[in-house]
């Protein structure tokens, strides 16, 4: 997708200060601070047990924090839960719809619970079914839906009340890549319509796709934050990837770039499995120099691209550990699902 | 998509977020509809309400009826038994509420309800509304079967309706107990086990199946305070004549007491469930 521009104006839709939640001995949240600006997507990235789900459950009034404050759309999560529930939507890792009811009945019920008239609730349900491509399956019980359809129904259910703030707790965990892309498209569309989103995820790619800003959490604490590209810039430069048209050129190409000794370029490595040569660079001048050199030497190229470091690398750099670190903290019951799904 | 294609039903104003009575009734209606659609999707869940009354009435009338009233006089026992079974049925249905709630409340949809601007008690009240409906079905079948076997009512149909209403009121109060159990225990099996421990002594240590006069003194004492005895006696006297006031007021007092204690606990439990 194209680079996401952060809307310039607008305050914070979500403000969290010093949020603490213990489960017995375990500190699921250990003083979390974060902001989500209106109309943007904040990605909360962290491994299993980092406290992501606990955070979402606190912010959606499902559990009370032990200390700290959190305001959503100006409402305090502890003191004004009723008002807060009018402006939020929540889609968890597991489907929060009634499996025995059809898609339409689920959406109609939620419309009625949100004080729509019978007529409006029916119309809104049909609108949402249409929008989330569920019209054909509208009359089938949700238990017969595929994983992706269920997640879409779940998103539709969350959108019935036009929430100004939407929490997505690992919205694509356990989904296949195609379905995952569908969910991403829907989320991007909602954001395009002005919804503020707090997204938790373990998937780096997901955060890159959807988030304007990122907060990295680990063991209940925020360990890094900022714009996605800022965070990457902290970790290092870019990698130039060159794909020769003839795979046989791979090693010769890498050797030529290394031998040329271009200013500031340490060397090139051939990646035979991918069929590319990786050249670490730090500036656009170096990019131009490498491309110029390859042209001079007459290499036929099939592709050329630059890559920022992956968020896996970002995570490794800021936490000093791999993201798949075994979880010590109990991040509420939903983690069981994650582990099965992972 | 442009904002114009989506019509704009606005959320109710956020007057401090309080949920008014009318909104509450509407929410309970929508949630009760959900519970009924669940039954429609899974008709087997009505077995206990449809089949059990038939089994109970046949079993008890013909297994015990002869010994109780003398061979060939089963009908006399039937007249004694049916008001008692009406009382028992409420308990059996209420028990099913406990296991159902335990199962239901593990599902993600409960998280959705708890993040919506609805009163948290409405989810529980809706369940009770539908279960009272199931009790009515079970009672209708019990009475229909009873009449087919020769049950006779010596009072008026109005008295019969009062007996039915009384067992509904008491059954609804018991549902709060089992909802509380269902929310407190971990598995449906545990709920069922616990429910049996509560139910068996109450059902059999009562005047449901046999007059208490021939029981040992200590047991007779227990049955006097057993609300199921009160309910069975009240129903019996309403259907067959006799002094109604004492047992009826006792039953209503029990129903009120049970509800006042367990309903707030159940709602609090639901609210704080993580």
Automatic annotation (TrEMBL), chain A:
Coiled coil segments of this chain: none
UniProt xrefs under Pfam families: ABC_tran
Keywords, comma-separated and alphabetical: Antibiotic resistance, ATP-binding, Cell membrane, Membrane, Nucleotide-binding, Translocase, Transport
Residue ranges constituting the ABC transporter domain according to the UniProt record: 14-244
Name of the protein: ABC-type xenobiotic transporter
Keyword DNA repair among record annotations: no
Family per similarity comment: Belongs to the ABC transporter superfamily. Drug exporter-1 (DrugE1) (TC 3.A.1.105) family.
Annotated localization: Cell membrane
Keyword Transport: yes
Enzyme class: translocase
EC numbers, comma separated: 7.6.2.2
Provenance organism: Streptomyces triculaminicus
One GO CC term, this protein: plasma membrane
Sample GO molecular function, one term: ATP hydrolysis activity
GO biological process, one term: daunorubicin transport
InterPro entries: AAA+_ATPase (IPR003593), ABC_transporter-like_ATP-bd (IPR003439), ABC_transporter-like_CS (IPR017871), ABC_transporter_ATP-binding (IPR050763), DrrA (IPR005894), P-loop_NTPase (IPR027417)
Membrane topology category: Peripheral membrane protein
SMART domains: AAA
TrEMBL record, chain B:
Homology family: Belongs to the ABC-2 integral membrane protein family.
Ranges where the ABC transmembrane type-2 domain occurs: 44-273
Name of the protein this chain belongs to: Transport permease protein
Organism listed in the record: Streptomyces triculaminicus
UniProt keyword annotation of Transport present: yes
Chain ranges passing through the membrane: 46-65, 77-101, 122-148, 160-183, 190-210, 248-268
Coiled-coil intervals: none
Taxonomy, superkingdom: Bacteria
PANTHER family: NODULATION PROTEIN J
Keyword Ion transport tagged: no
Location(s), subcellular: Cell membrane; Membrane
One Pfam short name: ABC2_membrane
Keywords, sorted A to Z: Antibiotic resistance, Cell membrane, Membrane, Transmembrane, Transmembrane helix, Transport
Major location (coarse): membrane
Topology class, membrane: Multi-pass membrane protein
GO cellular component: ATP-binding cassette (ABC) transporter complex
Example GO BP: response to antibiotic
GO molecular function: ABC-type transporter activity
